[in-house]
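QA checklist item 7 of 12: single-chain prediction sanity check.
[x] sequence parsed
[x] length recorded as 130
[x] structure emitted
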Amino acid sequence: MGHPLVQATGRRKRAVARVRVRHGSGQITVNNRPVEAYFPNETHRMVLAEPLVLTEMGENYDIDATIHGGGPTGQAGAMRLGIARGLVALDADLRESLKRAGFLTRDDREKESKKYGLKKARKAPQYSKR
């Protein structure tokens, strides 16, 4: 593989994706595996490819991603953000359409941490009057 044209980072929930964009034929690789092997669910593959479909750049670039943390949904969302940021770094004219579609917005919703004395983040033990 040649040197990446652009490297971008995407995050979602606990997942972090480092995305490298190269000239190529449209292959997507995740953690040195084909995207079909890493994301067997069609929905996750569709989510991460949305920026490529919107900009019609899927056939021009190869995507190589390194993902860690989180689950499959968070990882697919992180990769989508990374791909969108990488495409904007390559061509600033794409920014408006990607922004309008919501692909450049970092979804900052995270799991709330558990508090001491409680069973979960907010769930308290059952109250007993007597």
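[x] summary fact logged: The beta strands are 6-12, 15-23, 28-30, 33-34, 61-68.
[ ] second reviewer sign-off
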